[in-house]
Amino acid sequence: MSFHYDVLVIEDEKVVIDSVKKILIPEGFTVDETFDVESALLNLKKNKYKLILTDLMLPKISGLKLIEIVNEKYPDIPIIMITGYATLEIAVQSLKLGAFDFIPKPFAFAELLGVVHRAIKLVEVRKSSDSIAEFRKQSHPQHHIDNKSEHYYFLGKHIWTKLDQNGSAKVGVDETFSKTIGEIHQIDFPSVNEIISQGNPLARIYTNENFMHTIWAPLSGKVIENNQEVEKVNTLIDKNSLFHGWLVCMIPTNLEEELQNLILC
Amino acid sequence: MKNKISFKLILAVGVMTISIISIFSFFMIKNQTQALITQVKHSANQLSETIKSSTKYDMLLNQRERVHRIIDTIGNQEGIEKVRIFNKEGEVIYSPNKSEIGSFVDKKAEACFVCHVADQPLEKLTIPERTRVFEVKSGSKNLGIINPIYNEASCSQAECHAHEVSQKVLGVLDVTMSLDDVERQVRSNRMELIFFTLISIITVSLILWILVKKVVGTPVSELVKATNIVATGDLDYRIKIFKKDELGHLGRSFNQMTQKLAEANKQIVQSNKLASLGRLAAGVAHEINNPLTGILTYSTYLLNHLDNNQETKEDIEVIVRETRRCGEIVKRLLEFARQSPPHKTFVDINNILNRAISIVNNQLSIRNISVHKNLEENLPEFKADANQLHQIFINLLLNAADAIDSQGGEISISIKLVKKVEEFIEIKVSDTGCGIPHKNISKIFDPFYTTKGHKGTGLGLAVVWGIIEQHNGTISVESEVGKGTVFTIHLPIEEKETSAIITEKNIRK
């Protein structure tokens, strides 16, 4: 018999599954659970899911391998990685492999709901307009791909960075992200001069629904400026997310190596 | 005793002394004996010539009584065994021993044998041919000399009993002398030599024993003692006796070896400490993350579903806050544990330093800290992990800044190329801060050791140490309380399989 679930949780630790269910079920999500990738794949064959929430370190088959399998067989299901073993490199790597986002343990109510809502929203948005590339073509038809300084590097699907000629890099989120988070209530910016490494939280967006969305630093470096305008003019991040909608400007410290973890668009 | 060096040396030298003196004595005594015998031969010959010439006249006159008297007088002198004259037929004609007169000697006897060897008597003989040494029944040695009495014109022409002219030899004078004196002399010489040998052996042995004890024994026993102490694990023990000989050299090498051992040991301990702590941290962090997730999600859930009960809300907020803090601690633990292997490329060290300074510069200038750079230009590029070196500079700069109080101060950084056995880059980061107390200096590289209370993680220098170790470099620290601290880093330019050595210079002072 086939069931329809919103979320499939793959996690070998019972307390984490319980935590996820405790938060998601009262919000109206239906949740299915497995302890390893093998049974998850069986469930995926049998049932329909909107979203997969998986631990990175799993017995036998790892979460990374699961991304590849799901990308191939179920490309419409976004995957959120639960990174327990806080290997940021692997978390960043999972984004390059095609994970929707990652959520490091221990996570709180608002963080989990934020990322799950965003992923579910994405599935809905996709039904109307699709991929980032398409979206980018529509928004900026004047773009010249050969001009390197105009390139956008993406961490995962929604966090971008653009290198300026003066050596700084602006960081922001794309329109899909803006569309999927809802009304922004508050943005927590990093402090100026703070040094943040790739994959660590750079900014946090709180929405009116009291969800939290974390913007991961796409590059390591020193924060030099925050675009406070975005907070004031809520629409800026919606409409102009790739231009004036930048959030943070930073000086990268390890550019060449870290660019390899990003996706060039 | 048997295995002692001094015993072996003394034995060897003793055997050598005995052999040398024995060979020497053998030849010396032999030569001496021969010289003495030759001397006796000559005097015997002289005596026999004297007898011959003193009896010649009486014989010519055929005054036999006078010849008898002369022979008797001489024959009874001390040292002279026999004096005899016998004629060609072997008949004894004159002898102090009257009973012998008239008897015949055997021509085959030793006195006659030389001439009569071929039945045809020889007529001219040399002294050695005429002498013989023989042993008599009493055991003492005698020397006999024969002296042929030749026919002369005055003999053959004498009126008395005229020997025939054709007769060449008329008779033989046989003188036998005792060699007892010579024997005695040789014996006493031998005794003297044996005595001398014994004295030399004892003297040489004594000198050797003292010398070996002083030059070899004492340093060697000190070395043995030191080795045993070091073997029990006390690597700080040093040998104090230093001479300029090979043993002194050995002692110095031993001290160097123990010093290197101590350093290597310290390094291994530090490495193991870091590695096991890293594993422990990773393990604990991994295990703790899941229960923390449970606490955090349930408490945040509760927080979101509370009905305006302010007091409970505040209580739960404490749970959430502290759980988040735990999460931060775990994250730091994991960052420390996750010391990834260096990703080495050719780097420009000055450039990395400048980048690091630009990052912390604001923080430093706010606190009135000035940075002085003394960078050698055109340094060779070498293979290293740029990020990790960057991390080292940031950590050391921030540490130096934390050591400087609110009055402000200076941080000096020098980078230069040093050529010793190998080429390496020397980086010195010095500050005018508070310095590190003597007792703490060995702990500063330990993970989680901090003097900054809640502000510090205690991982900064542990990470620096780990990075330098992975670059096969060394880091040392010198510090004086109230004056400041100098960190010296050596990074090899050539990649090779050495390991980091931690030296804490002011511990040794």
Compact overview of the structure:
The complex is a heterodimer of chains A (265) and B (509). Chain A is an alpha/beta fold.
Explain what you see.
- The complex is a heterodimer of chains A (265) and B (509).
- Chain A has 265 residues and is of the alpha/beta class.
- Chain A is 35% helix and 28% strand.
- Chain A has helices at 14-24, 37-46, 63-73, 88-97, 109-128, 132-139, 175-181, 229-232, 234-239, 255-259; strands spanning 4-10, 31-34, 48-55, 79-83, 101-104, 152-155, 159-163, 169-173, 184-188, 195-196, 201-207, 212-216, 221-226, 248-252, 263-264.
- In chain A, strands 10-13-14-8-7-6-15 form a seven-stranded antiparallel β-sheet. Chain A has a five-stranded parallel β-sheet with strand order 2-1-3-4-5, sandwiched between helices. Chain A has a three-stranded antiparallel β-sheet with strand order 9-11-12.
- In chain A, helix 5 (109-128) packs across helix 7.
- Mean pLDDT of chain A is 83; it is low at 132-147.
- Chain B has 509 residues and is an alpha+beta fold.
- Chain B folds into three domains: 5-185, 2-Layer Sandwich (Beta-Lactamase); 235-338, Helix Hairpins, CATH 1.10.287; 342-509, Heat Shock Protein 90, CATH 3.30.565.10.
- The two termini of chain B are 42 Å apart.
- The A-B interface holds A 13, 15-16, 18-20, 22-23, 26, 84-87, 89, 104-110, 112, 193, 195, 210, 220, 222, 251, 253-254, 257 and B 282, 285-286, 289-298, 300-301, 303-305, 320, 323-324, 326-327, 330-331, 334-335, 338, 340, 343, 355, 358-359, 362-363, 386-387, 390, 394.
Q: Helicity range of the residues of chain A?
A: 25-40%
Could you describe the largest sheet of chain A, including whether it forms a barrel?
Answer: 7 strands, antiparallel
Sheet with most strands: strand arrangement of chain A: 10-13-14-8-7-6-15
Radius of gyration of chain A: 18 Å
Helix content range of chain B: 40-55%
